Amino acid sequence: MDINIGSSFKMTKKLGSGIYAEVFHGFNIKTNMEVAIKLEPVNTKRPQLFYEGKLYQYLQQEPSVIDKGIPNVYYCATEGGNNIMVMDLLGPSLEDLFNLCGRKFSLKSVLMLADQMIQRIEYVHSRNFLHRDIKPDKFLIGTGNRAHKVYIIGFGFAKRYIQKDGKHIPYKEGKDLTGTARYASINNHLGIEQGRRDDLESLGYVMMYFLRGSLPWQNQRTRKLEYRESVDKKKLSISIEKLCEGFPQEFATYLNYAKKLRLDEKPDYNHLRTLFKDLFTKSGFEMDNIYDWNLIQKMDGTPGKTTNNNQTEQLPIGQVLQKQG
Ligand SMILES: Nc1ncnc2c1ncn2[C@@H]1O[C@H](COP(=O)(O)OP(=O)(O)OP(=O)(O)O)[C@@H](O)[C@H]1O
Hints:
Elements: E1 3-5, E2 9-17, E3 22-28, E4 34-41, H1 49-60, E5 73-79, E6 82-88, H2 94-100, H3 107-126, E7 129-130, E8 139-141, E9 150-152, E10 159-160, H4 186-189, H5 196-212, H6 224-237, H7 240-243, H8 249-260, H9 269-282, H10 317-324
Helix pairs in contact: 3-5, 3-9, 5-8
Adenosine-5'-triphosphate (ATP) binds next to strand 2 and strand 6.
């Protein structure tokens, strides 16, 4: 395919697509560095790519945080009927990896991910923005020697919650649901203005999705238009205790904490990370950055090689996904 983008980039093959945009693999012609290229048609109803590009750049402008877990953006322009953004190439999303692992993650993987995901959200909040679409597809792992690092992407719905005068955005009702119904906070369903608490509540649903394999309000047999309403009803009717039943108490504690926060209250992110870190230690896990997907057996039928210390060989994740097709 090899299409030129600006004077420095070439686009090669498609990597994925969302509702609003398509993402392609590419590289910098001058340096050979691999990149991801996101394309949005110029005539789309709700253009958001340049807003997203500006946010990535803004989030990178914080010298005190070195590796922020946010991709760099190198180029934004309109070419050939598309808005284009060139950014760091990342690896698969947590949703891709969840599928690869048979749609269940172990407690160890969920706890290691939780620690990173809370840090990413805390960083975005520290820069005065809410993400407002927290879901497994918005967390991607890095490539090469950053394959254990979780990056946060997809800022099309992000919103500034600390206004220019330093005040928190006011409480409001009657708003449309923003983001993805499956992981939306209950207040988002109820039409209440979102705050930091809502990103954290959504993250709680992501964790329970990983542990349980699905959420109780998923896969309901309704037409698209009725889907949101049926998720509303089901989510409201299930208690946190029921949702987290059979899993360590810490997950219910986390969700109860997020749901009790006031709209403008700053979450104690450290407290939440400590909750999960203590559970990690109590469970006897080792912080070795080995996730479930690193232990997947080779797809050609031969099991992952066993090393001297009885650990399964880690496969480069790109290779595993390619083998899966
Ligand atoms: N920097 C990147 N490197 C590698 N793959 C990426 C990158 N950015 C996005 N992708 C892939 O492309 C897919 C779509 O990207 P993204 O979520 O940004 O699109 P979107 O249209 O904004 O999504 P949505 O419709 O869910 O809001 C992602 O799920 C991911 O698999």
